[in-house]
Amino acid sequence: MDFLGRHESMLRLSTDIQDIHGKNIMLYKGAFGVVPFSMIETYCEQLIEQGSLIRKKVRFVFVELAQNINRYSVERDNDEGVGFISICQSNDGYAIVSGNMTSGQNHKRLMDRLVNIASLNNDKEELHLYKRRLMKEGVAFSENANIGLVQSAIVACSRFYYESVKTDGDKYFITLKIEIKVPKIGNL
Amino acid sequence: MDNIHIPGSHDGYFVPTVDFNYQNGVCEISGESFLEETNVFYAPLISWIREYTKTGLPLVFNCKLTYFNTSSTKSLLDIFKILKKYETEGGQVTVNWYYDNEDLDLEEAIQDYITDTGLKINMINF
After folding, report:
1. Of A2, A38, A95, A164, which has the most beta carbons under 10 Å away?
2. What ipTM goes with this model?
3. CATH label of the domain that carries residue B120
4. Exposure pattern of B30-40 as b/e (b: 16+ CB <10 Å)?
């Protein structure tokens, strides 16, 4: 059974994350070596119709979530983290969805970050303060910092969803969805 | 001191172009920075700047990065901290960041560096 097949029941539990209502323009599942990072270049250029700044936001969030999987997924393939990531297009923008298994040890720290990010409710100033507070505390760039998630929330400046499902043993399946809205008016 | 020249590349990872010139004291980094091993890439650049600051000569740091991931953020912060320390100790330091002023995400990231280090960074639209 492949990765999505094994985790299908967990993905079904998350209605917010499933609520995309758009076309899936890219899905990658497997080990997060260099391959997905190469793919994003092609997909951003060819499939994202909006201007360069929107493409840049999509790419930024994609790269950070992909790196997150590579670093923290407890499922490994040749020392590369295993998980999935997709880009979906909806009427008002894009959503980047990722999923991977994480250890109980990482889970507590990750949930702390995610709860804090979500509670800041897209307030850019507060998110910047939170990022800088993490930096001052000296944890922001450690192996378990997740500063990329905070920066992704800043860049996306939109809704940030997460779902955590406990699986067998001391492991959790984490799903994240970050939306990037395309402005109706103004330069992109 | 030897000059440093690293050609940029896009091969899944994004390697920025680097030109550190001892003769004229101009250091330039441009392109995009998303590397497989960020610390390994930036360590010699940071060492080079540390060595240069021992000369007491003026230093111009031109940053033309248009994209950098959060792993690269720390290395850039380390560079700016060294430059700020050099300036505080009497060194002549000029930092220019060339950017598209429609890119608000990048503008905010530069502002974060200014706030975090106290270093003056000239933000130049291009």
Report:
1. A95
2. 0.85
3. 3.30.750
4. bbbbbbeebee
Q: Which residues pair with A102 in a beta bridge?
A: A172
Domain hosting B17: range is: 4-50+57-125
Q: How many domains does chain A have?
A: 1
- Tokens for A169? 């043993």
Q: Sign of the CA dihedral A106, A110, A111, A113?
A: positive
Q: Find how far residue B103's CA is from the centre of its chain.
A: 18
- Taking only residues 14 to 43 of chain A, the set having a beta carbon closer than 8 angstroms to any beta carbon of chain B reads 34-35, 37-38, 41
In this structure, which long-range contacts are made by residues B12-21, counting pairs with CB atoms below 8 Å and at least 24 apart in sequence?
B12/A34, B12/A35, B12/A37, B12/A38, B13/A34, B13/A37, B14/B67, B15/B41, B16/B65, B16/B68, B18/B45, B20/B45, B20/B48, B20/B49, B20/B52
pTM: 0.86
Using a CB-CB cut-off of 8 Å, the residues of chain B touching A64 are 69-70
pLDDT for A155 beyond 70: yes
CA angle B43, B47, B49 (to 5 degrees): 120
- Which residues in chain B have Cβ-Cβ distances shorter than 8 Å to A140? 74
CB contact under 8 A, A151 and B74: no
Residue A188 lies in a domain: no
Task: Give the H/E segment covering residue B91.
Answer: none
Domain extent, residue A96, equals 3-181
DSSP codes of every residue in B20-69: EETTTTEEEEEEEEB-SSHHHHHHHHHHHHHHHHTTT--EEEEEEEEEE-
Model pLDDT for residues A2-56, shown as the tens digit of each residue: 555 555 555 544 555 555 556 777 888 999 988 888 888 777 777 666 677 888 8
Phi, psi dihedral angles at A30 (to 5 degrees): 135, -155
B13 near A CB under 8 A: yes
Rounded to a whole number of angstroms, the distance from the CA of B73 to the nearest CA of chain A is 9
